[in-house]
């Protein structure tokens, strides 16, 4: 078994499973700071705010088979201790890299991807 980590590796993540589905599965255990969907591999990596939150999630799901939309998913600690992202524009320049993780729940207005993109592009690369 891999040693405990803030990062949880989720397998059998089908195309019908959304980022929001994964967030709902793990939010009861604490704050999720990063989520990476690996669609081509039917996998996802998510990072909890601390190891304790990840351990609590893993302990719970060792006794209860997690499933999303009727599909069993399999969870384990990742070999990564932390997920890092690299801004291609900042590589080699020493610029600070920052991330914005945006989750829209229960959107009351109809907003298209293009409108959201137009709004967010002013903050930097998307």
UniProtKB/TrEMBL annotation:
Molecular functions per Gene Ontology: RNA binding
Secretion signal, residue range per the UniProt entry: none
Higher taxonomy: Eukaryota, Viridiplantae, Streptophyta, Embryophyta, Tracheophyta
Keywords: RNA-binding
Domain RRM residues, every copy: 6-80
Highest taxon above the source species: Eukaryota
Name of the featured protein: RBP50
Pfam family, one: RRM_1
Keyword RNA-binding: yes
Classification via Gene3D superfamilies: 3.30.70.330
Annotated gene: LOC102603741
